[in-house]
Structures are given as C-alpha cells and as structure tokens.
TrEMBL record:
PROSITE patterns: CADHERIN_1 (PS00232), CADHERIN_2 (PS50268). This is Cadherin domain-containing protein. InterPro entries: Cadherin (IPR039808), Cadherin-like_dom (IPR002126), Cadherin-like_sf (IPR015919), Cadherin_CS (IPR020894). The lineage of its organism: Eukaryota, Metazoa, Ecdysozoa, Arthropoda, Hexapoda. The keyword Calcium applies. It comes from Diploptera punctata (Pacific beetle cockroach).
Length: 240
C-alpha cells in the first residue's frame, strides 16, 4: 500500500512506494521509500526495523570555482569572439542526474550581449563592445545557471563580471586649433613660452599623451624645447 512517513529531526516527508520481493542480508523484509525533499537522498531502501540498507543520492551541480571567474574581452572585437568557459560539477552519473545544461539568467526582455553553449559552457560575444563615449561599456555582469537532468532537476547559479578591455582606438585632440605666442627677443633661456594641451578618449595607459616638438624649418630646431608630459614649451636658447 501507499503511505507517507517523516524522517526524524529532518522534516522530510517520505512516500512508501512498494514492498520489494526478497529479504536483506539479515533476512529481514525491506521496503522502498521515495523522498520528496531535494536536500535529501533521492531514494533509499529501509529495513523493517528502520535500518537504511541502500542510499542513492541526487546531488546538485556546483560551480566550485565561481569566485575565481574574472574573464575579459577587448572592445571592438567581432561578434562571436570567445570569452570564457564556465564549468559546474555534479557527482551523479551522467544518465542519473549528472548531465548539466547551462543557461543565462536574465530579466524578461533583456537583450543579451553574450551567448552560451548549453552543453560545453563556452561563452562568446554576440555584440561589439565600445568603452568610449557614448556607450561607455566597461563591464558586464553575467549570471549562469547550471541545471542537471535528475528527478527532480537541481541547479546552481554563478554570477561574475566580464571586463571590457580598452584598445588604443582614439587619437589625441588638442584643445585649440592653433597656438600663437609672441616671444620677446630678450627673453632668457629656460623661460616658459606657452602651454599646450591635448586629451585622449581612451582609458588607462592608452589615454596618456606625450608631447614632442617638430619644427617646420631646420633652422628653427633648438630654439624651443617641450616637457613631454606637461606640454609646457620653454625657450631653449637666446633668440638672435
């Protein structure tokens, strides 16, 4: 017959399926029970005296290295660029709950900028990223769910950040089209003549601007020098 039982101290309900034909090693009859809570073994053979003879676990998949995930992809890479591979582990045999399927967890209607292979966990881009204005795409957070094929199906989720790396795709731009300054003939060498400034829309080292003077006429070479970091131009020698 069918009836329900409760495991002591657990709150888990057990459903009596049927009496098996035969006896255990100590010749006592035994029964098969099905548990309905995910956190407990999927099935167990229980002796008539309450002794557990066989246990078959239903393990959940686990992202064991989730906290270490730190993938990145360069901006302006084409759609379909490889990013990263996620991996979850399940202790069950493949045909008994150990086969894992990967999917993204996203809001309804959200336009995903990445795609994931349901079997391998390989993540690729499906969008061309741009760190510069106006997009300013510097990082994207992804949540991946790993679901097994057990009964019931169990799952685990992993959230991590994908960093969009900058490339040197912008040229420096001066803050003025032309710079003009009058220099007195008696100005002493080493005196400041003017300051120039340029900015670069890239990030990090790609945004660092260095300055260099290139006189149009060979005879003008040596009169001025420029601080390559600040853009300050100094008189280098006396003007004839």
């Amino acid at each position: 017959g069918y009836h329900h039982a409760r495991r002591p101290h657990s709150g888990a309900r057990l459903r009596h399926l049927r009496h098996l034909v035969g006896k255990s090693e100590n010749h006592s009859p035994f029964s098969l029970y099905q548990e309905t809570q995910e956190s407990l073994p999927r099935s167990a053979v229980i002796g008539s005296a309450g002794k557990k003879l066989v246990v078959q676990d239903n393990h959940k998949p686990v992202f064991t290295n989730c906290s270490q995930y730190a993938p990145s992809v360069k901006e302006e890479e084409p759609s379909g660029t490889y990013v990263f591979t996620v991996k979850a582990y399940d202790k069950d045999p493949p045909d008994e709950g150990g086969t894992i399927s990967y999917t993204f967890v996203s809001a309804r209607g959200e336009r995903m900028k990445f795609e994931i292979d349901n079997v391998t966990g390989v993540i690729k881009t499906k969008h061309i990223f741009d760190r510069d204005e106006p997009a300013r795409e510097k990082e994207v957070y992804l949540t991946v769910r790993a679901t097994d094929n057990g009964h019931p199906q169990l799952d685990d989720a992993c959230t991590f950040k994908v960093t969009i790396e900058d490339i040197n795709d912008n040229s420096p731009v001066f803050d003025k089209v032309n710079y003009r300054e009058s220099v007195p003939q008696d100005l002493r060498p080493g005196s400041e003549v003017m300051r120039i400034s340029a900015t670069d829309m890239d990030d990090g080292n790609n945004s660092i601007v260095l300055y260099k003077l290139e006189p149009k006429q060979p005879q003008d070479r040596g009169y001025m020098r420029i601080d390559e970091k600040t853009g300050i131009i100094f008189l280098n020698r006396t003007i004839d």
